[in-house]
Amino acid sequence: MDIVVFGAGSLGSLVGGLLAGDHDVTLVAREDHARAVRESGLSLEGAVDGPARVFPAATTDGTGLEADLAVVTVKAFDTETAADRLATGAIDAVLSLQNGMGNESILADRLEAPVLAGTATYGAVLREPGVVACTGVGEVVLGAREGGPSSLADAVGDGFRSAGIETLVAADMPRRLWEKLAVNAGINAITALTETENGAVLDAPAADLARAASRETARVARACDVALSSDEAVAAMEAVAEATAANTSSMAQDVRAGRRTEIDAINGYVVDRAVDHGLSVPTNRTLAALVRTWERGRGLR
Ligand SMILES: NC(=O)C1=CN([C@@H]2O[C@H](COP(=O)(O)OP(=O)(O)OC[C@H]3O[C@@H](n4cnc5c(N)ncnc54)[C@H](OP(=O)(O)O)[C@@H]3O)[C@@H](O)[C@H]2O)C=CC1
Ligand SMILES: CC(C)(CO)C(=O)C(=O)O
């Protein structure tokens, strides 16, 4: 397959680097990373099997690209830009592997190509330009964004697996996206605001807050016709917090680095959909307001 990875930072470089072992890959990245990849290739470190160095194409210009598939791995607040750039090229299919909700709708509204939904539980860190590390082998789950079977998702899943990426093709992506949202809603903002690792949400005093955020998310999911019980949402959040107890969540990393966060697509999204359905989600509302206040204080929004 000809594959464009739009937003080759941490996750995009890992996924793009693995895909490059078996496909023709073009990374759309920032200048210093793109230059390093063009000059010396992309080094893959850490918990991955396969080549230690691959040689994908790399560009800073995401316009006019042609590909069988575009994998979108920008942060949620850059999805509109990614979609607008991709729309100037000839892309046959699109897959989002981003956290948060709303990314697939933004892509589908701006692009004619079919859009698949996806989640990734791989851990990835861009160590320096041209060098990405896998900090945890996880899984990519992908499928039709509205749920149900999809021959396109099957073909993309085959392409990912042939490149050595653990991949599941799922017919229940709406539920999986909401479950991941419940996980992120419970863990990310709390660990970002309190400068703690993921395991902190398993114990008092944070545990009640994290459970409340996940339960509220499940209630909103049900209002959106997605069958996710509060117990399932809390269990999923706690299982991830336990499995990644020593990890720094992506939002905590963003706050530590003084970067804008994905709050709008996580707790903020829960609040927006709760408003649509006349529901009250005080924990998510508070967490979103606190993180947005932090961002505003640093001139990030
Ligand atoms: N890292 C991980 O382990 C995981 C991440 N995720 C999710 O994946 C998504 C990406 O995360 P992550 O890889 O960590 O984020 P990064 O910020 O490392 O990667 C995104 C990259 O895209 C670049 N970018 C944004 N817009 C453009 C553009 N127009 N042209 C070229 N490059 C652009 C960014 O540059 P700049 O910063 O300069 O804007 C950045 O380098 C998020 O939704 C995250 O929540 C999910 C699972 C695991
Ligand atoms: C699953 C979790 C919480 C892992 O850290 C994550 O997705 C994130 O940090 O954004």
TrEMBL record:
<dbReference type="InterPro" id="IPR013328">
    <property type="entry name" value="6PGD_dom2"/>
</dbReference>
<dbReference type="InterPro" id="IPR013752">
    <property type="entry name" value="KPA_reductase"/>
</dbReference>
<dbReference type="InterPro" id="IPR008927">
    <property type="entry name" value="6-PGluconate_DH-like_C_sf"/>
</dbReference>
<comment type="similarity">
    <text>Belongs to the ketopantoate reductase family.</text>
</comment>
<dbReference type="GO" id="GO:0015937">
    <property type="term" value="P:coenzyme A biosynthetic process"/>
</dbReference>
<feature type="domain" description="Ketopantoate reductase C-terminal">
    <location>
        <begin position="175"/>
        <end position="293"/>
    </location>
</feature>
<dbReference type="InterPro" id="IPR036291">
    <property type="entry name" value="NAD(P)-bd_dom_sf"/>
</dbReference>
<keyword id="KW-0521">NADP</keyword>
<dbReference type="Pfam" id="PF02558">
    <property type="entry name" value="ApbA"/>
</dbReference>
<comment type="pathway">
    <text>Cofactor biosynthesis; coenzyme A biosynthesis.</text>
</comment>
<dbReference type="GO" id="GO:0008677">
    <property type="term" value="F:2-dehydropantoate 2-reductase activity"/>
</dbReference>
<keyword id="KW-0173">Coenzyme A biosynthesis</keyword>
<feature type="domain" description="Ketopantoate reductase N-terminal">
    <location>
        <begin position="3"/>
        <end position="146"/>
    </location>
</feature>
<dbReference type="Pfam" id="PF08546">
    <property type="entry name" value="ApbA_C"/>
</dbReference>
<dbReference type="InterPro" id="IPR050838">
    <property type="entry name" value="Ketopantoate_reductase"/>
</dbReference>
<dbReference type="InterPro" id="IPR013332">
    <property type="entry name" value="KPR_N"/>
</dbReference>
<dbReference type="GO" id="GO:0005737">
    <property type="term" value="C:cytoplasm"/>
</dbReference>
<keyword id="KW-0560">Oxidoreductase</keyword>
<protein>
    <recommendedName>
        <fullName>2-dehydropantoate 2-reductase</fullName>
        <ecNumber>1.1.1.169</ecNumber>
    </recommendedName>
</protein>
<comment type="function">
    <text>Catalyzes the NADPH-dependent reduction of ketopantoate into pantoic acid.</text>
</comment>
<dbReference type="GO" id="GO:0050661">
    <property type="term" value="F:NADP binding"/>
</dbReference>
<comment type="function">
    <text>Catalyzes the NAD(P)H-dependent reduction of ketopantoate into pantoic acid.</text>
</comment>
<dbReference type="GO" id="GO:0015940">
    <property type="term" value="P:pantothenate biosynthetic process"/>
</dbReference>
<dbReference type="InterPro" id="IPR003710">
    <property type="entry name" value="ApbA"/>
</dbReference>
